[in-house]
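Re: weekly structure request thread

Next one in the queue (193 aa):
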Amino acid sequence: MIQPVYLYGQSILSQNCTDIMLDNPQLPIITVNLWDTMRNAQGCGLSAPQIGLPYNLFVIDSQNAFQAIGKGFRGKYFEAKDSGIQETFINPQVLESSSKMWKAEEGCLSLPGLIQTVDRPWKIKVKYHNEKLELRIQEFSGLTARMILHELDHTKGVLLINYLSVFARKYRYFKLKSIKKGHVKVAYPVTSC
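Done, posted below.
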C-alpha cells in the first residue's frame, strides 16, 4: 500500500534506526509498502524511516536507472555486465568500501527539488537479508552502491543536507523551510511538520 513520504523536518529522519526482527509479522507488509511507495513516487530507493518506521530496512531499484541511461553513458555508472538490481535490504551492514571514490549528483524523495553532489566509494561489500530472509554477502558497485549508501544514510539519520556546506545550507534556507512546511509540488503523497 502506498504510504506518504516523510519530508525533511520530520524527527524520524534524523534518528538512528534499529534492526528489525526477521520474525516480525509486519516485515512483509512493510516491504510491500516500501516498494509500492517508491514506485508510485518514481524513486529508485526508499528507506523505512521515509515512511515513518524506525527500522534498518530499505529497497533499491537500480535496474530502471540502468535502462534509463543511454548506452553510451552506462560505463560511467555501471561496471560491465552489471544491469542494476531490484532488491530489499533488511538489516544491512557495509563490510568493506573501496578506496576508489566518485562524485555524482543525488536527489531524495524526502527533499524534493534538492540535488547535491556527494562523494562515495565506487564499490562496497554488504551483508544483509533479502526479501526471502536469506542472508547475503555481496559486492555492489557504481550507481547501485551509491543508492545503497544513500538509503543506508537514511537509516542512520543522515540526509543529503548533511553533505551541504554551511554556506550552501544558508543559500538553500528558504527552499528547506518550504520543504519542511510541506510547500512542495510532487506527484506523491507526503507528510510534513
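The helical segments are 27-40, 63-68, 74-77, 142-155, 166-171, 173-181. The CA atoms of residues 101 and 139 lie 15 Å apart.
Next request, please.
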